[in-house]
Amino acid sequence: MNRNIKKALFFIAFTLLSNYLLIALYFAIGGKWVMPNALIVTAVYMFIPMFIAIITQKLIYRESLKSLGLSWKLNKWFLVAWLLPLIIVLATLGISLLFPGVEYSPTTSEALERIKSIVTPEQLKQIQSDLAAMPSYALILTNILQGLIAGVTINAVFGFGEELGWRGLLQTELNFMGFWKSSAIIGLTWGVWHAPLVLLGHNYPQHPQIGVFMMTISTLLLAPIYSYIRIKSKSVIAAAIMHGTTNALAGLPISLIKGGNDLTIGMTGLAGLIAIAIVIIGLFAYDYFLAKEPVISKVKVAP
Q1: What is the pLDDT of residue 122?
Q2: CA pair distance 6, 36, nearest whole angstrom
Q3: Which of 3, 146, 174, 255 has the fewest CB atoms within 10 Å, counting from its CB?
């Protein structure tokens, strides 16, 4: 078996086993999936791919971590990584509004009902207070600004917890397969990795079982975008920024509408999948017609 495949398979198996065991052990000791405990466990869950990547790279294969894309050399693709999630989120909002029974309603109680499962009671009260005190346009701009700031700071740290594994180790090892095949394997792994959280109500509280399939489709679509950012920026840090900003802004579309459900609206619903697919088409067009150094047909990840 190819050495790169062996290393990638080891990482995938070790990561999935470690993450699944974390959830199993949490419940085995009597843990309940309620806030804030669920948030703490989820935060730990996100860092496991990073730890497994470090163990695999340094302790087992005795190779440099820098080769996984640990570079702070800034370029325009860091900015793209930061702002592209906002474009996807706004497109998701627009597409959601095209669905039957969905309408714009920035102060709806239904939006609060959707997000109460992913925030603490104190945060929910603060959100309710903000909704009552601010005009809708000011609230939207504030949420966007907060999301962008969080995306490039604290959320990027948590995003890095995943990205050192996905776009660091896995993309480096699977690079020889080509852009689309490597992205598909990473996206599939990423989706399966989410399965325990989704089954516990994360992202799809109304449809957790179908949600596992939907989340996997979402990660399969997002994977080539993140991979492209990783390649063009020559840094896994840029991928972490995009990951963090996407997570920080993901709640915006569902907070501004009423109607629909977790399978149809929002970043991880059908509306989000359509928006992400449109961005993939845009990136492909850019790479084919405008890029000075096209990467999609044949790519080598630079250290």
Answers
A1: 72
A2: 38
A3: 3
DSSP 8-state secondary structure symbol assigned to residue 68: G
What is the residue extent of each domain of the chain? 3-289
The DSSP result for 155-198, as a single string, is HHHHHHHHHIIIIIIIHHHHGGG-HHHHHHHHHHHHHHHHHHHH
* Whole-number Å distance between alpha carbons of 246 and 203: 13
**CA torsion, points 21, 215, 171, 69, in degrees to nearest 10?**
-80
* ∠ CA 280-196-7, rounded to 5°: 65
Residue 86 pLDDT > 90, yes or no?
yes
Q: What is the pLDDT of residues 88-128, one digit of tens each?
A: 999 999 999 999 999 988 765 555 665 666 566 776 777 77
Q: What is the number of H-type helices and E-type strands within the chain?
A: 13, 2
CB 144 within 8 A of CB 251: no
Specify the amino acid at residue 106. P
Between CA 246 and CA 85 the distance in angstroms is 5
Q: Which helix (H) or strand (E) holds 28?
A: helix 3-28
Three-class SS state of 72: coil
Sequence-distant (≥ 6) Cβ neighbours of residue 102 within 8 angstroms? 96, 257, 258, 259, 260, 264, 265
DSSP code of residue 103: E
Q: Residue 257 belongs to what H/E stretch?
A: strand 257-258
